[in-house]
Amino acid sequence: MAENINDPKLFSDFPPVSTEAWEEAIKKDLKGADYDKRLVWKTMEGFSVKPYYRAEDLENIKSTRALPGEFPYVRGVNTNSNSWLVRQDFDACDVQQANKKALDALKRGADSVGFVTCADCKPSADSVSKLIAGIDPTIHEVNFVSGCNSRTILPVLIDAFKKGKVDIAKAKGSLDYSPLAALSLSGKFCADQETAAQRTFEVFNNGKALPNFKLIAVRGDIFRNAGSSITQELAFALSMGVEYVNWLTEKGVSANDAFSKMSFTFAVGSNYFMEIAKFRAIRLLWAKVAEAYACPNCKPITVHATNSIWNKTVYDPYINMLRTTTETMAASLGGVNSFTVLPFDAPYQKQTAFSERVARNQQIIVKEEAYFDKVVDPAAGSYYIETLTQSVIKHAWDLFLKVQDLGGYVKAFTDGFIQNEIKTLADKRESNIATRRQTVLGTNQYPNFTEVADQKVVSIETVKKPEVQKPADAICEPLNQFRGSQAFEELRYRTDVSGKRPKAFMLAVGNLSFRRARAQFSCNFFACAGFEVVDNIGFKTVDEGIKAALDAKSDIVVICSSDDEYETLAPEAFEKLNNKAIFTVAGAPACRPALEAKGIKNFINVKSNVLETLREYQRLLNI
To answer: CB burial class (10 A; 0-12, 13-18, 19+) of residue 126?
Structure first.
């Protein structure tokens, strides 16, 4: 029989090691290198992450002592499982087609459906009845993604439920009435602030007939899809939520009732552990808000999540499946109430039957085959994730308080504070992508060399970053919703539609290790712009390499060798090429000034701004 695993004798061979001993060993291994620069990670959220954590890091964190279902709900509200609703959203402009797709999704594993209605659609009893026909809202959630228009759907929906003999008291679902999201995305209210507050109150009153429906949406995802950090997303969502609570309580609604009708939507990015921490953090943060309203019995936050659009790509789009799967895992481990997987082709076309099926099955596999729904808060007790959670809480709360000090969400947004905070961070993220400090797989690093955009599917409007345009009647600058990869996509698309595909030839010569490494680097570099790359194992002489490059009718010739050899090989190759192609040196050799003095102008290396450098090559090639 196996010994009791709790027997301390099993661990007698592993004496405890103090933090001091660990630190001494690390410093010894670093051999004098700077500890913070080498091992401490500075996040985009504004705090530092250590290389390791220990039990002592959790000693002063009170929330780690709470159980699932207990205030402040860091560990979630479920006590027996980690189940969440698998939701799929459908374009509802064609109500019969949307209904058909929704019924099929529910048969194939979805628990919840969302209908995205047209902004200018006028809902009718007939259209809503057709949309929900055959769906039992007491079993499956029915959600309406309609923006300001959702308030007009509410009475029609109630009538449709009654005509369909639905037990309204048990119907489940949501509206996404969110005038503050409309303000944020358009720079103006659907009417004005006072009217928006009044309509929010009316939606609340009209929705009393649907006790299990969430009526007011707090849209944290719009910040993330403008390039915000996780802490910004949480802080500004909290501020938006508080604004709604204030609107309702000022009209006599109790804080408890106001909280019960709100749901939050967040976008999930690719920072796996940080995203897990985010969802744990928001539950505590909203619980703190409830405390501030003297509402200890307020219902815990309801969180719907979907994949971030910001980190999805048009080129090599199947990588989006990897991104959305990882994000689904993070959201489920973080304890969301429901989740919508973004179809992998969403950045460039309407979802297809194939992409819809894949999106749905990603969640089903995570649930049914990986059992992510079986364990409540599996991140609990992880020194790393628990510490991340506390760091996210602190920085998000501090920023939230700053917004409140500025007068609340509306005041901070109309004054431009929120937009400026997000833009500063988004600009930094874009810069990191341009310089490849942040990798966007398949776009700014390791691209598919042979891929060419299908112009029947992709247009310049798809890949070009949208300009922020403030409408004439706007009261403030709107948020700019875009994807971080768009600058690179536009770059490559311009090559694809130019009618020519420039050829970059690798003149690999000299030291074997250096020439192979630099040839591979350079191939990836130029392929990011859609250029054809010609790699070579190597040439015995410069003459042999130049001849091969000219025979191949190359537009760019990249010499790939070692720094020491460049001093003699680069001028020789440059002279023999005789301006018949753009000559480029791969690397940053110490002899660069001497090479430049001989007329060599083009260099690429790991510190290059890849985006700007490739734009310059396009200019030289008249693309």
So the answer is: exposed
Radius of gyration, CA atoms only, the chain: 28
Strand positions, DSSP E, 454-581: 503-508, 532-534, 556-560
Output the pLDDT for position 2.
47
Tokens of 551: 């025979």
Burial class (CB in 10 A: 0-12, 13-18, 19+), 421: buried
- In the structure encoding, which two tokens stand for residue 1, read together? 């029989």
CATH number at 520 reads: 3.40.50.280
Number of domains comprising the chain? 2
Q: How far apart are CA 248 and CA 262, in angstroms?
A: 11
| pLDDT tens-digit map of 47-57 | 999 999 999 99
Query: What is the maximal distance between C-alpha atoms in the chain?
Result: 87
For residues 206 and 185, is the Cβ–Cβ distance under 8 A?
A: no
| Contact of 488 with 453, CB cutoff 8 Å | no
CA angle 205, 211, 214 (to 5 degrees): 80
Query: In this model, does residue 4 exceed pLDDT 60?
Result: no
CA torsion 234-239-242-248 (nearest 10°) is: -120
Segment 52-88, tens digit of pLDDT: 999 999 998 888 888 999 999 999 999 999 999 999 9
Closest of 92, 100, 142, 90 to residue 119, by C-alpha: 92
Closest CA to 461 of 473, 453, 450, 451: 453
Six token digits for residue 524: 């990836």
Within 8 A by CB and 6+ apart from 180, the residues are: 196, 219, 240, 243, 244, 409, 410, 413
CB 334 within 8 A of CB 379: yes
Tell me the residue range of the domain where 519 lies.
498-620
What are 263-272's pLDDT values in tens digits? 999 999 999 9
Distance CA 450, CA 447 (A): 9
Element (H, E) at 219: strand 213-219
Give the least confident one: 13-17, 425-429, 451-455. Answer: 13-17
pLDDT of residue 150: 82
pLDDT tens, position by position, 495-539: 999 999 999 999 999 999 999 999 999 999 999 999 999 999 999
Integer Cα distance of 4 and 547 in angstroms: 74
Q: Which of 411, 435, 465 is the last residue of a domain?
A: 411
- Would you call 93 helix, strand, or coil by DSSP? coil
Q: Which one of 411, 428, 451 terminates a domain?
A: 411
Instruction: Give the torsion through C-alpha atoms of 28, 29, 33, 36, to 10 deg.
Output: -90
Q: Are 112 and 78 in contact (CB under 8 A)?
A: no
Residue showing tokens 């985010």: 278
